[in-house]
Amino acid sequence: MAEPAGGRPVTVSDVQQLVRRKDEIEAQIKACYELLEGQKGVGMHEPLVDSEGFPRSDIDLYQVRTARHNIICLQNDHKALMEQVEEALHKLHAREKEKHARDEAEALAEAMGQNQSLPQAFAKVNAVTPGSPASVSGLQVDDEIVEFGSVNVNNFQNLQNIATVVQHSEGRPLSVTVIRGGRRVHVGLTPKRWAGKGLLG
């Protein structure tokens, strides 16, 4: 099939255009057959001469010949067009399948990439007291802590490390990075005195 201009891939509208063209050709063929029918029911193969070999005088020979010629040409066009429609549909389906496979592969690669690029957590939030500095900053239960101020997986030994950072940062914002639902989230946390225990809650 001839590719659309510029060798671009076949689109749905290209197929629709071909189908419209096919419908037009079918309408023209029908009109030609109706014309033959109107000429005493002369079809495609009835003789155009009488028993004595003279051109028939009861029909319009020119119209009949023209209609027959047009039908043959239009049927050839119709056949070629049907092949184009079929090929275009094949290409369209193949491209859809290809696109679907590519999308799936990209989604998979992205998911794999995200997993690989997520840093390692060293602690998990198991409770957040409502109204506490931790709660106000947006920390949530099950957040996995990746960085807490200067503490990260490389230098973390025990929870005392975090307590030390908290005491030294009272009233100053701390940068905290957590993993939440498979994504990295940054939280600005300011340790301070509040109605409850500790500086975080």
From TrEMBL:
GO biological-process terms attached to the record: proteasome regulatory particle assembly
One Pfam family hit: Nas2_N
Keywords for the protein's UniProt record, in alphabetical order: Chaperone, Coiled coil
Highest taxon above the source species: Eukaryota
Coiled-coil blocks: 71-98
Keyword Lipid biosynthesis included in the entry's annotation: no
Gene3D superfamilies: 2.30.42.10, 6.10.140.1710
PDZ domain span: 109-182
One GO CC term on file: nucleus
Subunit composition and interactions: Interacts with PSMC3. Part of a transient complex (modulator) containing PSMD9, PSMC6 and PSMC3 formed during the assembly of the 26S proteasome.
Function as written in the Swiss-Prot or TrEMBL entry: Acts as a chaperone during the assembly of the 26S proteasome, specifically of the base subcomplex of the PA700/19S regulatory complex (RC). During the base subcomplex assembly is part of an intermediate PSMD9:PSMC6:PSMC3 module, also known as modulator trimer complex; PSMD9 is released during the further base assembly process.
Protein family (similarity comment): Belongs to the proteasome subunit p27 family.
Name of the protein this chain belongs to: 26S proteasome non-ATPase regulatory subunit 9
Record organism: Leptocoma aspasia
Organism phylogeny: Eukaryota, Metazoa, Chordata, Craniata, Vertebrata
Gene that this sequence comes from: Psmd9
